[in-house]
Amino acid sequence: MQHFPVFLDLARANVVIGGGGEMALAKLRLLLKTEAQITICAPDIAPEIRAFTPRVTLVNRPVLACDLSAARLVYAATGNENEDARIAALGHAAGALVNIVDDLEHSDFITPAIVDRDPVVVAIGTEGAAPVLARQIKAQLESSLPPSLGVLARIGKSFRKMAEALPQGPRRRAFWAEYYDSYGPRAFARSGEDGVAQTLDDLLAQHLERPSPIGHVDFVSAGPGDPELMTLKARNLLDRADVVIHDRLVTPEILELARREAVIISVGKEGFGPSTAQEVIHALMIEHAGQGAHVVRLKGGDASVFGRLDEEIAALEEVGIPWQVVPGVTAASSAAASIGQSLTSRGRNHALRLVTAHDMNGYADQDWQGLAEPGAVTALYMGKRAARFVQGRLLMHGAAPDMPVTLVENASRADQQIVGATLATLPQKAAALGGPAVILLGLAPRAAQQTLTLQEVAK
Ligand code: SAH
């Protein structure tokens, strides 16, 4: 993002437009929506612009330095390259921000396309890349945002103090959502601004009488990253959540699916990176559900696999908050799918182990004998740093150094990487990965196996 969007306070600020034709008029029309003190300087000033006096100050000659001494914004809008450059230089010397109309490269700022429902204003910019697209987006927004929105927001703003009678959180949010979604627009259509004010009073009284809703927590599995690998149930719950508390493993594409009013809280937890203490996560769930919120505790993969689910459930049970678990696709399933392999196979393995390389005491101990057996298949979670330790244990228990191993990083995401390895090369391959990776011990990518078979056939 080269241009950072901000909303500039132009009340009583000086804005100078150099130029008196079409271009100047277009900018003037936008600026007239503000309370800026606008001056137009040009030897020729179009009658359409003259019509705006005395709201606009007209100076019937080219811009001079003295015109700009107190200017906050300067528009060079003469359409003449040399004259615009001269005005821009004067503007810069005066310390103003300068826009040369239709010359992005030499401008300090751009004027976005605007959808105006004052005080609700949407600004659309494409950094000059696609003005047509900006116009399309503007047209879509113009048709989807009701004209009454500005009035509703203005009346709503003056009612904010009154609404504080409702406790902050889901109850107050529900009040405002009903106002903007249905009651406000209907009242405005029926009886204008006065009707809206009366409706706010009635709606507030109604909400104050409602009993506090009982909050609850859904432990929702987000899957490995691809939103299409979420269950319908997970999507529906995410769509309704008041509060979403998520791990770092949950991708932005999935968070996008949350209700737009939802409060999104990240409790980043990653192997060795910074993490939120488990107690803080418990406290957050209890605080929000305690206020009546529908909380979604969104966990990467399947919530019940290496996700400390039991501890979180216990914390809720202790204070009597209802909960449920929504299952999902775990990283091992996604990784196996990505290499076209079955996690179990008749005649090869009758058991599948999901193991973690870490436990509370450091490296986790396992049934190494079982893991080392020919044909055994194990999905190793959080295993990148422990790769050498795991390799050592397996070799010690008789595993073959050429045991097939596949590392799947960022399974199901756009940046997924599949790395074929053997037990012998595991540590070095694991060290090269940066993202979350699941290590499939005993499985090779199906394509690699095919190649091997072809080579064998060739022998
Ligand atoms: N509940 C999660 C696992 C959480 S433990 C699940 O069911 O998948 C975190 C570990 O999961 C990571 O260190 C990594 O080993 C694995 N993991 C999670 N998401 C992954 C993904 N998209 N690709 C590869 N591994 C992943």
UniProtKB/TrEMBL annotation:
Pfam families: CysG_dimeriser, NAD_binding_7, TP_methylase. Gene3D superfamilies: Cobalt-precorrin-4 Transmethylase, Domain 1 (3.40.1010.10), Methyltransferase, Cobalt-precorrin-4 Transmethylase, Domain 2 (3.30.950.10), NAD(P)-binding Rossmann-like Domain (3.40.50.720), Siroheme synthase, domain 2 (3.30.160.110). One of its GO terms (biological process) is methylation. Pathway: Porphyrin-containing compound metabolism; siroheme biosynthesis; precorrin-2 from uroporphyrinogen III: step 1/1; Porphyrin-containing compound metabolism; siroheme biosynthesis; sirohydrochlorin from precorrin-2: step 1/1. PROSITE patterns: SUMT_1, SUMT_2. It catalyses: precorrin-2 + NAD(+) = sirohydrochlorin + NADH + 2 H(+). Keywords: Cobalamin biosynthesis, Lyase, Methyltransferase, Multifunctional enzyme, NAD, Oxidoreductase, Porphyrin biosynthesis, S-adenosyl-L-methionine, Transferase. The active site is at 247 (proton acceptor), 269 (proton donor). InterPro entries: 4pyrrol_Mease, 4pyrrol_Methylase_sf, 4pyrrole_Mease_sub1, 4pyrrole_Mease_sub2, CobA/CysG_C, NAD(P)-bd_dom_sf, Siro_Cobalamin_biosynth, Sirohaem_synth. GO terms for molecular function: NAD binding; precorrin-2 dehydrogenase activity; sirohydrochlorin ferrochelatase activity; uroporphyrin-III C-methyltransferase activity. Residues 148-204 form the Sirohaem synthase dimerisation domain. Belongs to the precorrin methyltransferase family. This is Uroporphyrinogen-III C-methyltransferase. It comes from Roseinatronobacter bogoriensis subsp. barguzinensis. The lineage of its organism: Bacteria, Pseudomonadati, Pseudomonadota, Alphaproteobacteria, Rhodobacterales.
